[in-house]
What we know:
With about 260 residues, this protein is α+β, with helices and mostly antiparallel strands. About 20% of the residues lie in helices and about 25% in strands.
Amino acid sequence: MAVVFPGMNPYLEGPTFWPGFHHFLADEIVAFLNARLGPRYYADLEVRTVLEEVSIAAAHAVIYPDAAVLETGIAPAPAGHEGATAISPAPVTRVAVAPEGARLRTVLIAAVETGALVTAIELLSPANKRGTGLHSYREKRLRLLQSDVHLIELDLLRGGERPGWEVNDPPLDTDYVLLVNRANEYASRTSEIWPLALNAPFPTLPVPLCFPDDDIALDLGAVFRAVYERAAYARRMTTDAPLPPPEPRPIMAAWLAGHTGS
Protein backbone atom coordinates (compact mmCIF):
# COMPACT_ATOMS: atom_id res chain seq x y z
CA MET A 1 0.00 0.00 0.00
CA ALA A 2 1.09 3.62 -0.46
CA VAL A 3 2.77 5.48 2.40
CA VAL A 4 1.16 8.57 3.89
CA PHE A 5 3.88 10.83 5.26
CA PRO A 6 2.89 13.16 8.11
CA GLY A 7 5.45 15.77 7.06
CA MET A 8 7.88 16.00 4.16
CA ASN A 9 7.21 13.58 1.31
CA PRO A 10 10.63 12.18 0.25
CA TYR A 11 9.35 11.35 -3.24
CA LEU A 12 9.42 15.11 -3.89
CA GLU A 13 13.22 14.94 -3.67
CA GLY A 14 13.41 13.10 -7.01
CA PRO A 15 14.37 14.99 -10.18
CA THR A 16 10.84 14.75 -11.61
CA PHE A 17 9.24 16.70 -8.79
CA TRP A 18 11.95 18.70 -7.01
CA PRO A 19 12.28 21.74 -9.35
CA GLY A 20 8.53 22.38 -9.31
CA PHE A 21 8.23 21.70 -5.58
CA HIS A 22 11.08 24.10 -4.81
CA HIS A 23 9.32 26.79 -6.86
CA PHE A 24 5.87 26.20 -5.34
CA LEU A 25 7.28 26.07 -1.80
CA ALA A 26 9.07 29.41 -2.14
CA ASP A 27 5.97 31.08 -3.61
CA GLU A 28 3.70 29.68 -0.90
CA ILE A 29 6.02 30.83 1.90
CA VAL A 30 6.05 34.36 0.45
CA ALA A 31 2.23 34.40 0.26
CA PHE A 32 1.89 32.93 3.76
CA LEU A 33 4.22 35.54 5.28
CA ASN A 34 2.76 38.54 3.46
CA ALA A 35 -0.69 37.61 4.79
CA ARG A 36 0.67 37.77 8.35
CA LEU A 37 3.45 40.36 8.38
CA GLY A 38 2.49 43.74 9.78
CA PRO A 39 2.61 46.97 7.75
CA ARG A 40 6.32 47.46 8.49
CA TYR A 41 7.49 44.41 6.50
CA TYR A 42 7.05 42.55 3.24
CA ALA A 43 8.29 39.21 1.87
CA ASP A 44 9.71 38.81 -1.62
CA LEU A 45 11.57 36.22 -3.66
CA GLU A 46 15.13 36.20 -4.95
CA VAL A 47 15.90 33.74 -7.77
CA ARG A 48 19.44 32.85 -8.82
CA THR A 49 20.51 30.45 -11.54
CA VAL A 50 23.48 28.11 -11.37
CA LEU A 51 24.65 25.76 -14.08
CA GLU A 52 24.95 22.06 -13.38
CA GLU A 53 26.77 19.63 -15.65
CA VAL A 54 24.36 16.77 -16.19
CA SER A 55 27.15 14.23 -16.67
CA ILE A 56 28.77 14.72 -13.27
CA ALA A 57 25.95 16.54 -11.44
CA ALA A 58 28.39 19.13 -10.10
CA ALA A 59 27.11 22.61 -9.38
CA HIS A 60 28.99 25.68 -10.53
CA ALA A 61 28.98 29.26 -9.38
CA VAL A 62 26.28 31.70 -10.42
CA ILE A 63 26.94 32.70 -14.02
CA TYR A 64 26.85 36.25 -15.33
CA PRO A 65 28.01 36.66 -18.95
CA ASP A 66 30.89 39.00 -19.79
CA ALA A 67 29.09 39.88 -23.00
CA ALA A 68 25.61 39.25 -24.31
CA VAL A 69 23.80 39.29 -27.63
CA LEU A 70 20.44 41.02 -27.22
CA GLU A 71 17.48 40.86 -29.57
CA THR A 72 16.69 44.27 -31.05
CA GLY A 73 13.77 43.32 -33.27
CA ILE A 74 15.82 44.04 -36.42
CA ALA A 75 16.24 41.04 -38.70
CA PRO A 76 19.86 40.14 -39.51
CA ALA A 77 21.10 40.53 -43.06
CA PRO A 78 20.94 37.24 -44.97
CA ALA A 79 24.16 35.54 -45.99
CA GLY A 80 25.59 37.06 -49.14
CA HIS A 81 23.78 40.38 -48.59
CA GLU A 82 25.75 43.43 -49.65
CA GLY A 83 27.86 44.64 -46.76
CA ALA A 84 27.69 41.37 -44.85
CA THR A 85 30.95 39.82 -43.66
CA ALA A 86 31.50 36.20 -44.63
CA ILE A 87 31.56 33.90 -41.58
CA SER A 88 34.31 31.31 -41.41
CA PRO A 89 32.94 27.81 -40.84
CA ALA A 90 34.34 25.98 -37.81
CA PRO A 91 36.82 23.29 -38.88
CA VAL A 92 35.87 21.00 -35.97
CA THR A 93 32.52 20.42 -34.26
CA ARG A 94 32.04 18.23 -31.21
CA VAL A 95 29.12 17.60 -28.87
CA ALA A 96 29.53 19.45 -25.57
CA VAL A 97 27.98 18.44 -22.26
CA ALA A 98 24.65 20.18 -22.07
CA PRO A 99 24.37 22.46 -19.03
CA GLU A 100 21.24 22.33 -16.95
CA GLY A 101 20.09 25.47 -15.19
CA ALA A 102 19.13 25.07 -11.54
CA ARG A 103 17.18 27.96 -10.07
CA LEU A 104 17.81 28.63 -6.40
CA ARG A 105 15.25 30.56 -4.41
CA THR A 106 15.59 32.64 -1.26
CA VAL A 107 12.61 34.18 0.54
CA LEU A 108 13.50 37.66 1.76
CA ILE A 109 11.77 39.72 4.46
CA ALA A 110 12.53 43.42 4.25
CA ALA A 111 11.52 46.61 6.04
CA VAL A 112 9.00 48.67 4.07
CA GLU A 113 10.40 52.05 5.11
CA THR A 114 14.06 51.41 4.27
CA GLY A 115 14.02 48.30 2.09
CA ALA A 116 16.69 46.82 4.38
CA LEU A 117 16.91 43.05 4.49
CA VAL A 118 15.72 41.72 7.85
CA THR A 119 15.43 37.92 7.43
CA ALA A 120 16.61 35.54 4.73
CA ILE A 121 14.89 32.16 4.35
CA GLU A 122 17.13 29.80 2.37
CA LEU A 123 15.44 26.82 0.67
CA LEU A 124 18.34 24.49 -0.01
CA SER A 125 18.56 22.66 -3.32
CA PRO A 126 20.91 19.90 -4.49
CA ALA A 127 23.22 22.56 -5.96
CA ASN A 128 23.73 24.00 -2.44
CA LYS A 129 24.89 20.64 -1.07
CA ARG A 130 27.66 19.43 -3.34
CA GLY A 131 30.78 20.54 -5.20
CA THR A 132 31.46 24.18 -5.91
CA GLY A 133 27.81 25.02 -5.25
CA LEU A 134 28.25 23.91 -1.64
CA HIS A 135 31.37 26.06 -1.35
CA SER A 136 29.58 29.09 -2.82
CA TYR A 137 26.60 28.65 -0.52
CA ARG A 138 28.84 28.33 2.54
CA GLU A 139 30.47 31.64 1.61
CA LYS A 140 27.05 33.28 1.28
CA ARG A 141 25.93 31.70 4.55
CA LEU A 142 28.98 33.05 6.37
CA ARG A 143 28.31 36.55 5.05
CA LEU A 144 24.74 36.36 6.36
CA LEU A 145 25.91 35.09 9.76
CA GLN A 146 28.38 37.95 10.01
CA SER A 147 25.68 40.51 9.22
CA ASP A 148 22.67 41.84 11.11
CA VAL A 149 20.29 39.64 9.08
CA HIS A 150 18.39 36.72 10.63
CA LEU A 151 18.85 33.41 8.77
CA ILE A 152 16.31 30.60 8.38
CA GLU A 153 17.51 27.50 6.54
CA LEU A 154 15.19 24.78 5.25
CA ASP A 155 17.06 21.64 4.20
CA LEU A 156 14.40 19.26 2.89
CA LEU A 157 16.87 16.98 1.11
CA ARG A 158 18.30 13.82 2.63
CA GLY A 159 21.17 13.66 0.15
CA GLY A 160 24.27 15.80 -0.16
CA GLU A 161 26.39 17.49 2.49
CA ARG A 162 24.74 19.79 4.99
CA PRO A 163 26.36 23.24 4.74
CA GLY A 164 26.18 24.30 8.41
CA TRP A 165 29.06 23.33 10.68
CA GLU A 166 26.71 23.40 13.65
CA VAL A 167 24.70 20.49 12.20
CA ASN A 168 27.77 18.53 11.13
CA ASP A 169 29.87 18.54 14.30
CA PRO A 170 28.62 16.24 15.65
CA PRO A 171 26.37 15.18 12.77
CA LEU A 172 22.64 15.01 13.39
CA ASP A 173 21.09 11.60 12.78
CA THR A 174 18.01 12.87 10.97
CA ASP A 175 16.46 13.16 7.54
CA TYR A 176 15.90 16.90 7.25
CA VAL A 177 17.14 19.95 9.12
CA LEU A 178 15.27 23.20 9.79
CA LEU A 179 17.26 26.01 11.36
CA VAL A 180 16.70 29.52 12.70
CA ASN A 181 19.70 31.74 13.44
CA ARG A 182 19.00 35.11 15.01
CA ALA A 183 21.15 38.16 14.46
CA ASN A 184 22.40 39.83 17.64
CA GLU A 185 24.97 42.35 18.82
CA TYR A 186 27.44 39.68 19.94
CA ALA A 187 30.31 38.08 18.02
CA SER A 188 28.81 34.59 18.19
CA ARG A 189 25.42 33.47 16.91
CA THR A 190 23.45 30.42 17.96
CA SER A 191 21.28 28.29 15.69
CA GLU A 192 17.98 26.86 16.89
CA ILE A 193 17.70 23.49 15.12
CA TRP A 194 14.69 21.29 14.39
CA PRO A 195 15.76 17.80 13.18
CA LEU A 196 12.90 16.37 11.10
CA ALA A 197 12.36 12.67 10.43
CA LEU A 198 10.36 11.11 7.61
CA ASN A 199 7.68 10.01 10.06
CA ALA A 200 7.31 13.38 11.83
CA PRO A 201 5.01 16.30 11.04
CA PHE A 202 6.39 19.71 10.13
CA PRO A 203 6.96 22.08 13.06
CA THR A 204 5.91 25.72 13.19
CA LEU A 205 9.03 27.89 13.07
CA PRO A 206 9.57 31.35 14.52
CA VAL A 207 10.41 34.08 12.01
CA PRO A 208 12.39 36.80 13.79
CA LEU A 209 11.96 40.45 12.79
CA CYS A 210 13.45 43.75 13.99
CA PHE A 211 13.53 44.48 17.71
CA PRO A 212 11.14 45.03 19.47
CA ASP A 213 8.68 43.31 17.11
CA ASP A 214 7.63 39.78 18.06
CA ASP A 215 8.39 36.74 15.94
CA ILE A 216 5.70 35.59 13.55
CA ALA A 217 4.86 31.90 13.15
CA LEU A 218 5.69 30.06 9.94
CA ASP A 219 3.39 27.02 9.90
CA LEU A 220 5.32 24.76 7.54
CA GLY A 221 2.65 22.08 7.74
CA ALA A 222 0.03 24.48 6.41
CA VAL A 223 2.41 25.72 3.72
CA PHE A 224 3.22 22.17 2.63
CA ARG A 225 -0.44 21.14 2.47
CA ALA A 226 -1.22 24.19 0.32
CA VAL A 227 1.64 23.35 -2.04
CA TYR A 228 0.58 19.69 -2.22
CA GLU A 229 -2.94 20.66 -3.20
CA ARG A 230 -1.90 23.47 -5.55
CA ALA A 231 0.44 21.19 -7.51
CA ALA A 232 -1.96 18.20 -7.45
CA TYR A 233 0.82 15.91 -6.17
CA ALA A 234 -1.69 13.40 -4.79
CA ARG A 235 -2.76 12.40 -8.30
CA ARG A 236 0.66 12.80 -9.91
CA MET A 237 2.90 10.51 -7.87
CA THR A 238 2.96 7.06 -6.38
CA THR A 239 4.43 6.40 -2.96
CA ASP A 240 4.68 2.62 -3.21
CA ALA A 241 7.84 2.65 -5.37
CA PRO A 242 11.39 2.76 -3.92
CA LEU A 243 12.40 6.12 -2.48
CA PRO A 244 14.65 8.40 -4.51
CA PRO A 245 18.33 8.24 -3.40
CA PRO A 246 19.80 8.12 -0.85
CA GLU A 247 18.75 4.95 0.94
CA PRO A 248 16.64 5.66 4.04
CA ARG A 249 18.25 5.48 7.47
CA PRO A 250 17.77 2.02 9.06
CA ILE A 251 15.21 3.30 11.57
CA MET A 252 13.22 4.92 8.78
CA ALA A 253 13.53 1.83 6.57
CA ALA A 254 11.93 -0.15 9.39
CA TRP A 255 9.16 2.45 9.71
CA LEU A 256 8.52 2.36 5.97
CA ALA A 257 8.39 -1.45 6.01
CA GLY A 258 5.77 -1.32 8.75
CA HIS A 259 3.66 1.08 6.69
CA THR A 260 3.91 -0.71 3.36
CA GLY A 261 3.62 -4.30 4.47
CA SER A 262 6.95 -5.12 2.88
